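Q: Structure tokens for this one, please.
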Amino acid sequence: MKPLTTYFGDGEYPFALRSAQIIELEGKCGAGIGTIAARTFAKHFSQIEITETIRLAAIGGGMPPKRAAEMIAAYVADQPLIASWPLASKILEHAWFGAPHQ
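A: Here is the predicted structure, written as tokens:
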């Protein structure tokens, strides 16, 4: 699947939840991808679901893990959760439905 490229923090970055990232996300969140997506879409998410969705999708898009953690620390941690929700929601939507016309 082609990554979702969108603005995050200081520029445009590719994001992709591939199989390895989905498995890690499920483990970290203690829930399956369907549950994580449903809760996020309904705004019934936990903080770890938002932060890990973004961090792991950045890694899946090609960002080195250390840089992804730095981006989370700079642009997600200690920010209002609603500020990061649109990006996490877009990432999960892309993983669930794919890109339009893909």
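A few notes: DSSP finds five helices and two strands in the chain. Helices lie at 19-29, 33-41, 47-60, 65-75, 81-97.
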